[in-house]
Amino acid sequence: MTGPASRDHSTLGSVRNAARLLKEFSRDHRELGVTELARRLGVGKSTAHRLLATLAEERLVDQNPQTGAYRLGLAMYELGNAVAIHADLHDACSEIVDQLRNSTRETVQVAVLDGRQVVYVERRESPHTLRLFGRVGHRNWAHCTSTGKVLLAHLPSDRLERLLDGWTLEPRTPHTVTSIPLLREQLAQINTRGWAENVSEAEIGVASVAAPIRNGLGEVVASVSVAGPVQRVNGESLRRFAKPCVEAGLAVSRRLGFNGVGSHGMGR
After folding, report:
1. Which label site among 47, 87, 178, 243 has the fewest CB atoms less than 10 Å from its CB?
2. Are 18 and 54 in contact (CB under 8 A)?
3. CATH class of 83-255
């Protein structure tokens, strides 16, 4: 009888073999057949074929219809680009987020979108004694954060519709938007004015403003925010951070190759 431990071992072994298989591809070996991969991995041809079929379903490998051999798929290219973007983003924004933190004296964060959540990939703490809890790698829901709303507002319409379809907006606080139509209105406003704000929507007593960061193609790939406790950051004291936040986002964008104009709406 196969128990949980043996099933876990088998599953991990399959994952390991799949990872080993992907690593066999290189500049010198762009295409490999089932027989060759089975030999390199030390597994049977049927096992190699099952691994390849699963990876092909996930677009991690493609089969050349003319030769029958396999090569790395489009999803691997997308994953590689994601790694490159994060490395480029870190290099582009480090100095600028330092400057923004120093000028605002509040916590500055940079976030990227992962499904319906944001992941904070850069963070600079406020020098004030009263500061926010958080860390690099921390996640939060996109619908209740200023960084998340900026990223949602600038998604292509088809991607946004896929995210909104069937999404039950979790009420993190009494101030969280829980209506899809209302969220759509907010996203349209953010798109028009170029920045987002959040007051006690994700956490009571915390407020923030955020602005987009674009790549060389003009696509919004991240957002930068200034956040603090509502005792210091609220109402007009919050909105006065919108301009430096937008300017910081534009400065990072230019380092990433963006050469367009800044976000509109700041003059209103």
Report:
1. 87
2. yes
3. alpha beta
Sorted by sequence, the CB contacts under 8 Å of residue 40 that are 6+ apart come out as: 24, 32
DSSP state of 177: -
User: What is the value of pTM for the model shown?
Assistant: 0.67
Crossing angle for the helix pair 180-193 and 146-153, nearest 10 degrees?
A: 80
What class does CATH assign to 4-72? mainly alpha
Let me know: does 89 contact 209? Beta carbons within 8 Å: no
Q: Cα(80)–Cα(105) distance, rounded to whole angstroms?
A: 35
pLDDT tens for residues 171-230? Answer: 999 999 999 999 999 999 999 999 999 999 999 999 999 999 999 889 999 999 999 888
Domain map (residue ranges) of the chain: 4-72, 83-255
- In what side-by-side order are the strands of the sheet with 107-114? 139-141, 117-124, 107-114, 220-229, 206-214, 196-199
Neighbouring residues of 171: CB distance < 8 A, sequence distance ≥ 6: 178
At 134, list the tokens: 């958080």
Q: Hey, is 77 helix, strand or coil?
A: helix
